[in-house]
Amino acid sequence: MYEKLIGSPQQDPFDALVDILAAADRYDFTLGVIPVAFVVALIVATVTSVSTPPMLAVAALVGGLAIVDACYLNPPVRDGGDQGPT
């Protein structure tokens, strides 16, 4: 459900979703991996006979690897301007 403002043109919700996803960058998707890993771990632990703590440990490992990748292996870089001392 969304609010329609009076006198404003209405945008299709699908077009709004496409605009949001087009504006997202690599780091937005990397941050999205972390909760998705935990949700998948809980679903797998519920559906299968695997206990929850090992699945949460795997999800924590996936989240940790995503953070290491985003912060240390492929850190954000400036698009210009002052790059610091040369």
From TrEMBL:
<keyword id="KW-1133">Transmembrane helix</keyword>
<keyword id="KW-0472">Membrane</keyword>
<feature type="transmembrane region" description="Helical">
    <location>
        <begin position="29"/>
        <end position="48"/>
    </location>
</feature>
<protein>
    <submittedName>
        <fullName>Uncharacterized protein</fullName>
    </submittedName>
</protein>
<feature type="transmembrane region" description="Helical">
    <location>
        <begin position="54"/>
        <end position="73"/>
    </location>
</feature>
<dbReference type="InterPro" id="IPR058328">
    <property type="entry name" value="DUF8015"/>
</dbReference>
<keyword id="KW-0812">Transmembrane</keyword>
<dbReference type="Pfam" id="PF26047">
    <property type="entry name" value="DUF8015"/>
</dbReference>
